[in-house]
Fold this sequence. Notes:
- The structure is a homodimer.
- Chain A contains nine helices and 15 strands.
- The first copy, chain A, is globular.
- The two termini of chain A are 34 Å apart.
- In chain A, a hairpin with a 2-residue loop joins strand 1 (7-10) and strand 2 (13-16).
- The first copy, chain A, has helices at residues 27-30, 49-62, 71-85, 126-131, 153-157, 159-164, 205-216, 228-232, 264-279, and strands at 7-10, 13-16, 34-42, 45-46, 90-97, 113-120, 133-139, 169-173, 178-181, 185-190, 193-197, 221-224, 236-241, 245-252, 255-256.
Amino acid sequence: MSSDAPYLFLNGRIVPVSEAAISPFDIGLLRGYAVFDLLRTVDGWPFLLAEHLRRLRNSADALGLVVPYTDDEIAAAIDDLLALNNHHEATVRLVLTGGESPDGLSFSADTPTFFILTHELKSLPASVYESGGKLLTKRHRREVPEAKTTNYLTMLRHHDEIVDAGALDLLYHDGEHVAEAASASFYVVRGGAVFAPGDSVLWGTVGSLVLNLAEEQGTKVVLGDLRLEDALGADEAFLTSTTRGVVPIVALDDHPIGDGTVGPVTQELMAAYERALLGAL
Amino acid sequence: MSSDAPYLFLNGRIVPVSEAAISPFDIGLLRGYAVFDLLRTVDGWPFLLAEHLRRLRNSADALGLVVPYTDDEIAAAIDDLLALNNHHEATVRLVLTGGESPDGLSFSADTPTFFILTHELKSLPASVYESGGKLLTKRHRREVPEAKTTNYLTMLRHHDEIVDAGALDLLYHDGEHVAEAASASFYVVRGGAVFAPGDSVLWGTVGSLVLNLAEEQGTKVVLGDLRLEDALGADEAFLTSTTRGVVPIVALDDHPIGDGTVGPVTQELMAAYERALLGAL
């Protein structure tokens, strides 16, 4: 299998994908000790770059790792890579590991592995935005919720189950409170207000933008614990993600949210987010 | 940093470490979707090879992966590698990932990445076996307990804390029951019987052997839930691991186990395990 991008950035240099080599001794591979972030382009330009770089550094902090380049250096590398890889619209993946570990356990934060991959941006079918999607609830809490680590064991193990159910993603909860989707932030609307899970979730770049947009248009935003039963009994629900934007969620498992159609607050936020994307042009 | 072994086995071929390249698109790197196993040699020969290969296949099953070689093929690759790498005594690391993923999410179980690394076996100081060691308790449950995945986020994040406390490892529990150490199995002795946590733990190759040895010498073995308070109030405790064998544990955090010295049942099992190692010669 080959990627759709001929070049990548690896440890300071842009190299052809065919020549890019990660050591089998990399601790990101041997022990899953790695963080990443993923941003998208709008008309070819990185969107919310500063926010994604800030989150990447926060994720690195949580694992005692250090991003070995300045924001400007990373921005320049992304620009060079996008110019070479010639996507229509791209996602840009920044990956940081603890680097090589001769004994498979010890490593030095001073010699990390850092690389940048680009992919062609894939969009969800328009029908999902019109009719809404479903999430499968799953009892799980990410191991380091405040960091975007590369650990997607639970999501990938349930991939077939998600597809078979016609669902978009998993919604993680602890039996009592809702946290986040496996690859997205999750919010509900009750009585006209947006409720956002406060703890044990990754800070969402798009989610944060959308909550700001909600407040700007006079919608109340409530951060805090979100009970699973309150999510099930919500008027509306939606997820936010870098690649998918604002996506209406109309069912959790086989339980409809509200009347099972896309509600007015979600529609307003989808429109507001589209305007923000266009405003970035 | 370079490893102490000049060769490795990668996807069917033995290659110099300097020429071994893992793709940056490997799902084991991008999403931590990988399992492994680790065995040791005794006088240069793989110890408990069949048990380790069985466990590797079980781990693969749990993630929907398939080990792409027969036991005989893997045994031959290990033999070739050990002959080339010339260790005094080795650990052998078998790693299986979902293979390359062009989009960073999808992959095919038909095109896995499989490699074998060897390392020089490192032993604990003799004083640990004489005086016993300490574990730090940590509330955590591994995400797929029945599989030996590459996810060691929690252990590696607490590495400095473990070292600063003079401890050997973390002992995972859920607030009520004890499970396993981050890189070892854990057992306690109460009233002359060995108690082994039954669920939510990885099947231990050395642990299983040691429990058999215990029964052979007339020691009762009880499998089942092990309460944290019963571990704290135990007469003796020990861990088992491939690289470390049977290691007496005389403290959990700053709480001594029994009288804080290595007890008679643990001493018997350490001796029985040493005889089993010699018996493999």
